[in-house]
Amino acid sequence: MKSASVGASKHSVLPPIIPETEKEFLEGIQSYIISEIEKVGCTEQGPAEDYYIIYRNVFEMIIEHVNAYKSILTTIKQEYDAFIEAIKKGQHDAFYLHGKLKTLACESSTLMYYKKRITQLEEKVKRIERNSARTESLIQKLKGLRLTLLAKEDLSSVKKVNPAKKIPGLNLKDSLDIDALSNHLDHLQQRLKELKEDMLTKYIPIENTANVEGDMNHALQKRNRAEKTNENLKFCFYRLTLFASVIAIWENTDKNIDTLQLLIHQMIENEKLAKGKKTH
User: Cβ(108)–Cβ(101) under 8 Å?
Assistant: First the structure.
């Protein structure tokens, strides 16, 4: 290798002869770079993004100028662009993870807050369950009232009496006995009196049926909203419980941020798998 280099140094190598058009193109490229750097106010150690844009444009100008190598230069540029985009994405992800780690740095106060929040949500869930039970009881009462109104409507309807038909509650012999008929009439009048008293104390006027229907619909809507809120709170409680268990596991380890991040990632993946099973 040494002898070859000595032999090569004995013969002077002439510099390549550059055509005038190529010189003009290179000078134009150099002028473009200098003027663009001055426009964006870059120094020699200026922003990397601005330098990248300037030299990317220069690369495109060279590709358009050199037709013989246009395809290979285009492929090289695409690979460099993809690599730079991957670097930019990595920087963005690193910035996001840095902010997330700063948030997790306050895990002791965060854990205390979540435990307090879990207690509050448990109390709220119990309160909603009690309200749901009261709402369900009210709906059942409204249903019973509706059936009562229908029964009242049936009792108030006037029926045509067929004289030749057997009297309900009496046999044929009693139907021809004046005393039996009188006693049965007294019984029916007493029953009618009791029904009238029940209508005043146990039932509401038929004009109020629309109000009862409105109250029942309102109660149903209220119950549906309460059930939806209850489901959302249960889901929040479930996630907070998972997070609290992850923190508890992490506290028993080396308390490394990477370990905590891995545990949180596993918790999110398990939750996605559980959601996927429910949808199927």
Answer: no
pLDDT in tens, 156-198: 555 555 655 666 776 767 666 677 777 878 888 888 888 888 7
Q: Are 67 and 220 in contact (CB under 8 A)?
A: no
User: Residue 137, Cα to own-chain centre: how many angstroms?
Assistant: 32
Residues 6+ apart with CB under 8 A from 115: 244
- Overall size of the chain counted in residues: 280
- How many CB atoms lie under 10 A from the CB of residue 26? 13
Interatomic CA distance for residues 18 and 16, integer angstroms: 6
How many CA atoms are closer than 13 Å to the CA of 275, on its beta-carbon side? 9
107-144 tens-digit pLDDT: 667 778 888 888 889 888 888 888 888 888 888 888 88
Residue with tokens 């395809």: 71
